[in-house]
Amino acid sequence: MQKKVTNVTINPGLKEDIYYVEVFRGLWITNRHFVVNMWRHTLRLFGIKTKEKGAVTYQYPEERRPIHHRWRGRHRLTRKQDGSMRCTACMLCETICPCNCIHIVPGESPNPNVEKFPEQFNIDVLRCCFCGYCAEACPKDAIRMDLLEPEISGYTRDIIFTKDFLLGVTDDRPWENARLEAAYEEDK
Amino acid sequence: MLSPSAPMTLSMGPSHPATHGIIRINLQLDGERVVDSTVDMGFLHRGFEKMCETHAWNQAIVYTDRLNYVSAMINNIGYCMAVEGLLEIETPPRCQTLRVILSELSRVEDHLTCLAAQVMECGALTAFLYTMKAREYVYELIEMACGARVTTNWTRVGGLSMDVPPDFADAIKARIPSIRIVNDEFNKLLTKNRIFIDRVKDVGCMTKEEAIDWGFTGPLLRATGVPFDVRRDTPYLNYDEFDFEIPIGSNGDVYDRYVIRLFEMEQSLQIIEQALEKLPEGPVNVDDMSITLPAKEDVYGNIEGLINQFKLIMDGHGIKPPPGEYYSAVEAPNGELGFYVVSTGEDKPYKCRCRPPCFPFTAAIPKMIKGHLVSDIVPIFGSINMIGGELDR
User: Fold this and answer.
1) How far is CA B229 from CA A59, A82, B15, B217, B234, in A?
2) B344-378: per-residue pLDDT in tens?
3) pTM for the complete prediction?
4) Can you say whether the dihedral through the CA atoms of A164, A166, A172, A176 is positive or negative?
5) Shortest CB distance from A141 goes to which of B195, B300, B310?
6) Chain A residue closest to B246 (CA)?
């Protein structure tokens, strides 16, 4: 295609010098926004659906933004059909991880048909950069980031996802427990 | 009363509300007028180039997200194109068109953010909130394509991490009118507003020669009247198939830069529409087992795929470009974003140098603000769109 060049310089003229014309045009836009959005808010208050919301923001803790299913959120470890974990401690995720946040201690599996399994599988989530390489590298579909959970927070500096937590055996959060216990001890 | 003979020293930054990014400008003031200044940069240095040397070729893509975090997609694409040049491969047509679409979306997003911040610092908070709304639309589209809003990490050497979802084209087509409305309102609110014009007209001027001497690229160079655009002058991807105009200014001041950014957003939206028209079907990754990860069916299903997966990921294996060096540049929203990569045949870069587009602009701040008032520094600084992550790497 040919290279097209356009000169877009604007030289303000008399209309801009008068100042009021453009200022009232600007005020018209902002006021229209106010009225339209208020109308939408009011209609929605009475349960009438409008095509668009009054505001693009969400009332966060009560109202959640719909997240696309491709979202890379909190990690989890998957299981086989018989309930045992899929991970075979092949260390590919630990190798590909650019920020070295996965630490696996392999061990001999109790099942004679399976050679290895991770005795420990820790993710130091404060180091994690959520690139999704671990899920991409896994040859067994054992680690996924599909929980659509964007909020990961804690009160300490060691938020470490253990194997049980990642598998969903315990849904309590160990870092939170430590904090609560400490608070409990302090109260006593 | 005459001003005292010795100018006053004032340190603006490192964390000043108007320097969005960590940078310090040491001002020598005569009253309100800037006599001289120096710029201190490097507060956000994270060692991007050194980190690349200790990570595999594909792992470094994660770090490019953090360069210009407002348009992370273009950094991903720029880096991957440099490595692909080293490997002497060409990505499939679908991948190229998708890269064009996402590049232009990122450009819209970056310009929206830059203009919003620039006018907000001049006091126009309403316009800022309108553009943030449009940016939210773009972020939703980017989230749809790659699963993250800011740190995208979407491209891979030789293609993409994943194809876009089937309803992606419809989602973009549904959103483009909303983005256009916001641009239009923004234009009506500010472009001919006397308050804004008085604030930015003939402020921070650069001439053609000066801009070229300082190494300017992108909107700041075009504002001086030089029609240089990497997309046209050294076409990459399939940009030569698209019809778009290059805006130029004539004064090189903050107002021209503003108008050019506004015009470029419209051009980007037009490119996206053209690209969606002729989005070809087909694979998004090159068909080369030594570069692209095998399909998941092969990894789970047969031993060849499994071995291939291990061979591409294990330490000391993976992608190994032939020894050599390669420079490739893309048109980032700020200007020419270049990556210079050197390979010694290892699975890691020997050297990866990034040419950040906003470095020359920031270096030229003393030149641009000399003789202006302190309050003029804010619009000038806003117009150069300094991004800390990219400047200090």
Assistant:
1) 42, 59, 33, 8, 8
2) 988 889 999 999 898 998 899 998 888 888 888 88
3) 0.87
4) positive
5) B300
6) A5
